[in-house]
Specification:
Belongs to the ABC transporter superfamily. With 573 residues, the chain is α/β, with parallel strands linked by helices. It contains 22 helices and 20 strands. Strands 6-7-8-3-9-10 form a 6-stranded mixed sheet, with helices on both faces. The chain starts with 7 loop residues before the first strand and ends in a 14-residue tail after the last helix.
Length: 573
């Protein structure tokens, strides 16, 4: 941690940013002030809509490209110690181009949308170098290889010729960090760079940022909604809500004695991960037979789902990649069985295979005694009312041209369950059950928050009173407090309706909150299965231990221990 009297490299004074849309003006950042000291990591934390990402974009005036305008304030940047700072708000475009990427670099949340799909990653890194330095293409490519090695990208010399789509999410983010560090910036702005990544890949990225910061002495402005990440990485913390700063302190003091109610709310949501069940539902009676008596609701036996591997040239390859490789499991009625694992482990393919959204190659699946794999399409369509799915991206799951009412009503209409006044009553009842006000049902998906959209998806999944709900990363895209609310809702519905869940997640911290039993998948296989607390307290498999060790801890004292999460082998893509 840097000293408290270190000179600031960045000073933001009374920054106000607004967006204008026709006759409407929205203030996204409302008069905030803060500074980043040399050599420190300052985290800006807050939920979606708090203004933290707009603040990051405003520093480099990128917010103007997104339709925003800086109405008041200064952004003072001093590249080297002892020099007068430059006000970036008043700087001309030529000056800004000279600073971006060289003195100040930025890493965004979605690497795939930040990388050019038409160019190799080597060409993209080399372009950054050649734009600011007079070097030939060969030297720029040599530097690119060295940078990819520095960010621990496996087989950097081969990967330099890869296109972004050929790399995993973790690899893509390492490429973005390599680009950001290509010119040894004095300040790195990282806007939610680990939010979309698995916990072990996230841990590796956090380790990497700490390592590179120690090597180069750069300052870091790290933006996140995850208080566990803040505890691991930050020296100081700024908490934002509704465009304003509500609290600022050093990380130890803020976690030990938060002053603002909103900060306490964020910390409470983050520390719930250590609980067996969310507090509001902790005493809920179990509805399944704990001793395993009675036939399981769902039985999966030796399930194999595979995809063809692309052959070279025009030849058709007969080889296949086994995304699910001989998985067997049971789920009892009223139980929550979680499947946890990283991207590429096969957990989502398992969920889709159970519902026959993808066709398994072999094995057996029975729901309440019915052989799912033996059903013809009309029979499968009728059975689908008893098994529903909730996906990770609620906005992508909803039709942007249809109202919330029509989307909840759709399953009821398709299956001929209700119409007219009865349909309206059912839809309104479902909306109220998941916490959506009835007067919002005439709105379209864009008018809802992320948490509300996920509630709409849950209401739609509940419309036909299913026996089984497969929740595939259903809370992964949500902020911590919204995630806690949705998890509470799912547990309430389980208790009230006797629902059975197959809960798929890459976050074993979330799994620990909600599940009765947990299965751990690695490279298509189920490597561990047992009662949640038993697995989390005494993992039998090394991979399970790696997942547990990678979960960020919302406690600076615990998080600051010297820890290196074992880097699992990146998938061969």
């Amino acid at each position: 941690m840097t000293g408290t009297h270190a000179e600031p490299i960045l000073t933001v004074e009374d920054l106000r940013v607004a967006f204008a849309d026709r006759d409407r003006r929205t203030v996204a950042v409302d008069g905030i002030s803060f500074s980043v000291r040399r050599g420190e990591t300052l985290s800006i934390v807050g939920e979606s809509g708090s203004g933290k990402s707009v603040t990051a974009l405003a520093i480099l005036r990128l917010v103007e490209l997104a339709g925003g305008s800086i109405e008041t304030g200064k952004v003072l940047f001093a590249e080297t110690a002892g020099t007068p700072p430059l006000d970036l708000v008043g700087a001309d475009r030529s000056t800004l181009r000279g600073l971006r990427g060289r003195a100040v670099s930025m890493v965004f949340q979605e690497p795939m949308s930040s990388l050019n799909p038409a160019h190799t990653v080597g060409d993209q890194i080399a372009e950054v170098v050649r734009r600011h330095e007079r070097v030939d293409k060969a030297e720029a490519m040599r530097r690119a290889v060295a940078l990819l090695g520095r960010v621990h990208l496996p087989d950097a010399e081969r990967r330099i010729t890869s296109y972004p789509h050929e790399l995993s999410g973790g690899m893509q983010q390492r490429v973005m960090i390599a680009m950001a560090l290509a010119l040894k910036p004095a300040l790195l702005i990282a806007d939610e760079p680990t939010t979309a990544l698995d916990v072990t890949i996230q841990a590796g990225i956090l380790d990497l940022i700490r390592e590179l910061k120690a090597e180069t002495g750069m300052s870091v402005l790290f933006i996140t909604h995850d208080m566990g990440v803040v505890a691991e990485l930050a020296d100081r913390v700024v908490v934002m809500r509704h465009g304003r700063i509500v609290e600022e302190n050093d990380v130890a003091s803020l976690f030990r004695a938060p002053e603002h109610p909103y900060t306490r709310q964020l910390l409470a949501a983050a520390t719930m991960a250590g609980a067996r069940r969310l507090p509001a539902i902790a005493s809920a009676p179990e509805t399944f037979a704990a001793d395993g008596a009675g036939a399981p609701l769902l039985e999966v036996r030796d399930l194999v789902t595979q995809y063809p591997v692309k052959g070279a040239g025009f030849k058709r390859s007969k080889t296949h990649f086994r995304a699910v490789d001989g998985v067997s499991l049971d789920i009892r009625s009223g139980e929550i069985l979680a499947i946890v694992g990283e991207s590429g482990s096969g957990k989502s393919t398992l969920g889709k295979s159970i519902l026959r959204l993808v066709e398994p190659a072999s094995g057996g699946i029975r729901l309440a005694g019915t052989d799912i794999l033996g059903l013809k399409k009309p029979e499968l369509r009728r059975l689908r009312r008893h098994m529903q799915m909730v996906f990770q991206d609620p906005f992508g799951s909803l039709n942007p041209r249809r109202t919330a009412f029509s989307q909840i009503a759709e399953p009821l209409v398709i299956h001929g369950v209700a119409k007219g006044a009865d349909l309206a009553d059912r839809v309104e009842g479902l909306a109220q059950r998941v916490g959506i006000p009835v007067d919002m049902l005439a709105r379209y998906p864009h008018a809802f928050s992320g948490g509300q959209r996920q509630r709409l998806c849950i209401a739609r999944a509940l419309a036909l009173s299913p026996k089984l709900i497969v929740a595939d990363e259903a809370v992964s895209a949500l902020d911590a407090s919204i995630r806690a609310q949705v998890l509470e809702l799912m547990l309430e519905l389980q208790r009230e309706m006797g629902l059975t869940y197959l809960f798929i997640s890459h976050d074993i911290g979330v799994v620990r909150q909600i599940s009765d039993r947990v299965g751990v998948m690695y490279r298509g296989r189920l490597v561990e299965l047992g009662e949640t607390e038993a697995v989390c307290s005494a993992p039998a498999h090394a991979y399970t231990k790696t997942l547990l060790d990678a979960v960020p801890v919302a406690d600076p004292a615990a998080a600051r221990r010297i820890r290196r999460v074992a880097r699992m082998a990146e998938p061969a893509v």
